[in-house]
């Protein structure tokens, strides 16, 4: 049986420290190397779900650093 996206499997990733790193002291948001290409590639095989303990505002702000194609690869964003 497939999920709502029609894919057989779901890949769940944590946003913080997996896809991004935020340096509190410097106030700098950094994407992990190849995070965007990883999301675009995995979209071909998996429904992608991102979760974080952060608020929705922070989550949307963090995703503003990703290119639009990588963000469109994500089926669901789960946050506080």
Protein described:
The chain is α/β, with parallel strands linked by helices and 80 residues long. Helices cover 26% and strands 31% of the residues. It has three helices and five strands; from the N terminus they run E-E-E-H-E-H-H-E. The radius of gyration is 13 Å and the shape is globular. The relative contact order is 0.24. The mean pLDDT is 93.
Which stretches of 5+ consecutive residues score pLDDT under 50? none
Kindly state the mean pLDDT as a whole number? 93
Tell me the quaternary state: single chain
Shape: globular
Rounded to the nearest angstrom, the distance between the terminal CA atoms is 29 Å
Order of strands, widest sheet: 1-4-5
The helix content is 25-40%
What topology emerges from the helices and strands here?
Layout: E1 9-14, E2 20-23, E3 28-31, H1 35-42, E4 46-51, H2 56-63, H3 68-72, E5 74-78
Parallel strand pairs: 1-4, 4-5
Antiparallel strand pairs: 2-3
Give me some keywords for this one.
alpha/beta; 80 residues; three-stranded parallel β-sheet; 3 helices; two-stranded antiparallel sheet; 5 strands; globular
Sum this structure up briefly.
With 80 residues, the protein is an alpha/beta fold. It has helices at 35-42, 56-63, 68-72, and strands spanning 9-14, 20-23, 28-31, 46-51, 74-78. The strands form two sheets. Strands 1-4-5 form a three-stranded parallel sheet.
């Amino acid at each position: 049986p497939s999920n709502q996206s029609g894919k057989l499997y779901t890949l769940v990733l944590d946003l913080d420290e997996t896809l991004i790193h935020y340096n509190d002291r410097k106030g700098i948001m950094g994407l992990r190397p190849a995070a965007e290409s990883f999301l675009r590639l995995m979209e071909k095989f998996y429904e992608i779900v991102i979760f974080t303990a952060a608020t929705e505002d922070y989550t949307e702000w963090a995703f503003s650093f990703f290119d639009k194609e990588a963000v469109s690869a994500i089926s669901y964003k789960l946050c506080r």
